[in-house]
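It is worth pausing here to work through a concrete case rather than discussing structure prediction in the abstract. The textbook approach is simple: state the sequence, then state the predicted structure, then interpret. We follow exactly that order.
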Amino acid sequence: MLFKTAFVALLSTLTVVNGFAPRRPLAVARGGSFSMSTTEEQKTEGKKAEDAPPTHIGWDSHKPVDKVPDSLVREGDGPDGNYPMRSKFEKMCREAQIAITKAIEEIDGEGKFQEDAWTRANGGGGMSRVLSNGKVFEKAGVNLSVVYGSMPQEALQAATERGVDRSKGMAPGERVPFFACGLSSVMHPKNPKCPTMHFNYRYFETDGGVWWFGGGTDITPCYIDEDDMKHFHGTYKEICDKHDPDYYKEFKEWADRYFVIQHRNETRGLGGIFFDDQNDRDPDTIFEFSKECLNSVVKAYGPIIEKHKNDEFTQKEKEWQLIRRGRYVEFNLVYDRGTVFGLKTGGRIESILMSLPETARWEYNNIPEEGSPEAEFIEACKHPREW
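Step two, the predicted structure:
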């Protein structure tokens, strides 16, 4: 059965950038918190739920605009924190969005990205760039979002693996003021020999000066091409090794754990890198790592698409691609952290669901023939490999 999933948009990521002075002096403390002024220190732990701040965001709070401001980061918005990092991260994401969409248009040869933008009265907003029905890509989207507001504690738990720890001392039902900023993308090519690719790089702050970085890039083919996987994983291993010799092993294994479709006992694809809760060193150091990973997306993915975009394929191979896209949808709607976070915080629905393909297939009890390329792929999804 063929399902058309509405052309909707990417995970509700988070974004912001450009370096201005913070509202008040603060010192970065190891472990991801900021030393605030005495006023902040005098805040009592465990405020009453009735004192919780307003939500500030909702599904209908997004106002379309013809032109987004030069920066969506405003110094007076959101919880106190590292304003220069917010601004710098947004700037990085904006520049990457322009560069990546330009490169994908060149690879496609015909399709063009359409941009829509929105703002919120209480701060933040975003820009979506989406290419639909191109020569090479059925759908490709790159979303930039800047979000201010407050979220339920369960949304914080959805946003990060250490969400429970970050709501300690808060009264039951109390909302968590936050700032979030990032760039997220999914590319769905038409040819089943061309893999789908996803990336998401983000920066969070919550009330009390807590901050962290997260992100990653992963690849979801339908068939195994070992040279492609060596190139993709090798690109990110080189970056990881440059910044920390332990990064690639840790973040590759993290991706293999994170992208599991638990009810299928298989991964969504063939991995990549994934990291979250990164605040164990100076924020500028983690920023530089995130920046290099983001700016290497085209280098890791582009040559693979160029290599396969004109490959011949059969109807059976196309149907297999649609079945695997069905698995992609299952993961994104049930397990994906960005999707859950966006839905729980009243995010822009078109942006949250942009990751979904336009077409997918669910075939009853589909079991690939033993020894087939499809069976080989499933084996790699059940037992992640080192590439």
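Step three, interpretation. DSSP finds eleven helices and 14 strands in the chain. Residues 1-57 have pLDDT under 50 and may be disordered.
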